[in-house]
Amino acid sequence: MRIVTAAVLLSGIVCFSGVALSQEHDHSRPAAGAAGGSSQEIGVFCPTMKTGQLCSRGTANIFGFKDDKAEQWMALSRKYNKAVNAATLELFKDAEAVLSPDQLRQLKAWFDVGLNPQMNELLYGKGLMPKPSVPAKK
User: Fold this and answer.
1) Rounded to whole angstroms, what are the CA distances from 105 to 32, 96, 99, 110, 111?
2) pTM for the full model?
3) Which long-range contacts (CB under 8 A, 24 or more apart) does 4-8 make?
4) Helices H, strands E: what count in the chain?
5) 40 touches 133 (CB < 8 A)
6) Mean predicted lDDT score pLDDT of the chain
7) What phi and psi, each to the nearest 5 degrees, are found at residue 45?
8) Which residue, among 39, 21, 131, 3, has the nearest Cα to 82 in the 3D structure?
9) Which residue of 21, 77, 110, 121 pairs with 56 in a disulfide if CB–CB is 3.0 to 4.6 A?
10) What angle (nearest 5°) sits at the alpha carbon of residue 109, between those of residues 17 and 34?
11) Domain residue spans in the chain?
12) Where residue 54 falls among pLDDT bands split at 50, 70, 90?
């Protein structure tokens, strides 16, 4: 019984660590081979991150920040993104006591990567950001 419990606990820690680390990578620089480079990145919410996490480089570009000001802003946005990630993971953990497994899967789907581009489109439609640049297709 102890071995099973230890194995479940260990797998949970590994899973949690993987999720947390996947959200901490630096989005202030473009991905390798990204078209246009970081100076072209425009976006408030990062399409490669969980719902609600900011594009550090994209928002710096929208604000027109350069050099030190851009670095300061990107550090602030990374701090925000870590807090969003931690709060989301805490919600998932706390929700396990309240939600059924199907409800928990639904909750997690609300935060999946993929909703940020739609949020950017809404902001663009309201005139709150410039039109995001679309990378050239290969």
Assistant:
1) 32, 10, 9, 9, 10
2) 0.65
3) none
4) 5, 0
5) yes
6) 75
7) -110, 130
8) 21
9) 77
10) 70
11) 37-125
12) very high
- What does each C-alpha distance from 119 to 7, 20, 42, 101, 125 come to in angstroms? 39, 23, 13, 27, 10
27 pLDDT more than 70: no
Assess contact for 57 and 29: CB atoms under 8 A.
yes
Residue written as token pair 């706390």: 94
Nearest to 57 by CA among 76, 43, 36: 43
Q: What is the pLDDT of residue 22?
A: 43
Both tokens of 24, joined, read 């901490």
pLDDT at 42: 81
The structure tokens listed for 110 are: 């609300």
Helix axes 67-95, 101-110, angle to 10 degrees: 170
Quote the tokens at residue 14: 């590994």
Please name the residue that has the structure tokens 């805490």.
Answer: 90
- Whether 53 and 84 have beta carbons less than 8 Å apart is answered as yes
